[in-house]
Amino acid sequence: METGRNLTDNELLQILRSDTVPDDAIRQLYRSQMGITKAYINQNNGSDEDAEDIFQEVILVFIELVKKDKFRGESSIATFLYAITRNTWLNELKKRGRSKLREEKFEKAKDNTEMDISHYMVNRELKTQLMRVMDSLGETCKKILLAFYYDNLAIKEILQNLQYENEQVVRNKKYKCLKQLEQMLAGQTQLAQNLKSILFYE
Amino acid sequence: MNDNFTNTNLLIQYLDGELDGEALKSIQEKIAANDQLAAELESLRLAKQVVKTYGLKKTIGSIHTEMMKELSARPVQHRIGIRRILQYTARIAAILIIVLGVTVLYQYFSATPEQLFRNNYETFQLHETRGGGTASVLEDPFKNGDTAAVISAFKTIDKPQPEDFFLNGLAALNLNHAPDAIHSFLALQQNNKATNTHFFEEDAEYYLGLAYLHNDEPAKALPLFEHIYADQAHTYHRKINSWFMLKLKKMARR
After folding, report:
1. Helices A155-162 and A167-186, packing angle to 10 deg
2. Which of A55, A182, A200 lies nearest to residue B47, judging by beta carbons?
């Protein structure tokens, strides 16, 4: 990614749609949006830590939505991120039961949102469970699956990086790891069902 | 190798986009015909998405730490920036004050009566007779800027009137004949005194003072300008300021 200047919304969206997400694209989102998120959450009974947690999740949701073509620049990125942040935070406040006033504000906020993004809310608890499942998979499986599905490396490159005997061994290992993960998820029906709804944004 | 393994392997290959042709068609038909396979495919698809989300979350997490350091350092840099700007501004202001001070001191010590004269001398504009009863014969040549003709004509006048003395003094000053100018302005003042009149009194006082400066006699110019400076109703009061007086006093002390 070209550095030194801020990318336009269209350029950023194009980059985020690519197979791998460059770190600089995420940095740009932080530089342009973190301050706004922090100010909003601070003004609405949240701490700096809340703002940081929420922002990480919002960025994650945003990138996934872009990759799944659920956001194509119908509004500015800033407006979209702000809307997700607001939905997520007001929902968080609702969960914490801070006040009825917040709930009223939440309803009003939903009404005022131009796009219907109410279902693009961050579900932090489910994401935490997702992380736990992956962490319980074991380091080797995580490495192979991440290399193949997240870093989009070819089997040959994984072979070089992880030093297996041959490509077939890598393929078999990848098969076993993905099957293992699939079975772990299948063993937790409710979690799998919930994850499907938040990960596929359907 | 059992059927389950084969099918799962095919499903994964299908999921990864590695199948084409007959193999692709075959697995698509199997999935369509077998709910269990379709369900397994969905579970594998979810597992793949879990991996992607996990990877992205980890990436964001590592960038988050780095960015929070950068962003929390920003206000400090901003403060440092402001402090630096203030320091530079203070330095520039100090330099300007020093330069200004040196300039002022230079002007104070290097000022001469001639400089004061040149800085304050302006040709008198004769619009109408301010004093005497009948118009002077000097008026026309004076208005025409013919100062030599004014002086020549003055010499032909037997009994000069106040305006004649004044215009002759101005013409002499204009021709850099400061002693003649002084003589003419003094004669006007004496005439006014003798007749208890005030024709061209304030004009003569100002231009006499300038004539003294032009003639390098600041001590004689000082009381005239002190009077003008002290009298706020004086016609020429606005032309004299404290800086002028300061320099004149220094010159007068020589």
Report:
1. 100
2. A182
Distance CA A59, CA A127 (A): 13
Name the domain boundary from A99, A121, A143: A121
Same domain, A141 and A160: yes
Greatest CA separation for chain A: 62
**A187 and A103, same structural domain?**
no
Q: Report pLDDT for B189.
A: 92
Select the CATH number that applies to the domain covering B114-252 from these four: 3.20.20.190, 1.25.40.10, 3.30.230.80, 3.40.50.2000.
1.25.40.10
> How large is the ipTM?
0.86
Q: A68 — contact with chain B (CB < 8 Å)?
A: no
The C-alpha of B42 sits at a distance from chain A's nearest C-alpha, in angstroms, of 9
**A80 within some domain:** yes
B20: number of Cβ within 10 Å: 8
Chain A environment of B44 (Cβ under 8 Å): 178-179, 182
Answer whether residue B14 shows pLDDT above 60: yes
Q: Cα angle vertex B117, ends B113, B120, to 5°?
A: 135
Pick from A142, A150, A182: which is nearest to B56 by CB? A150
Range of the domain at A188: 126-199
With beta carbons under 8 A apart, name residues in chain B contacting A3. none
Number of domains in chain A: 2
pLDDT at A182: 94
Task: Catalogue the long-range contacts made by A147-156 (C-beta closer than 8 Å, 24 or more residues apart).
Answer: A148/A174, A148/B16, A149/B48, A149/B51, A149/B52, A149/B55, A150/B51, A150/B52, A150/B54, A150/B55, A150/B56, A151/A20, A151/B55, A152/A19, A152/A20
Flag whether A136 is in a domain.
Answer: yes
Domains of chain B, by residue range, sit at 3-72, 114-252
The encoded tokens of residue B111 equal 């000022």
Sequence-distant (6+) residues with CB within 8 A of A77 are A9, A12, A13, A29, A33, A62
Query: Of A85, A70, A199, which Cα lies nearest the Cα of A133?
Result: A199
Q: B3-13: per-residue pLDDT in tens?
A: 777 888 899 99
A22, A104: one domain:
yes
Question: Vertex A170, ends A166 and A174: CA angle to 5°?
Answer: 170
**Which letter does DSSP use for residue A150 in this model?**
I
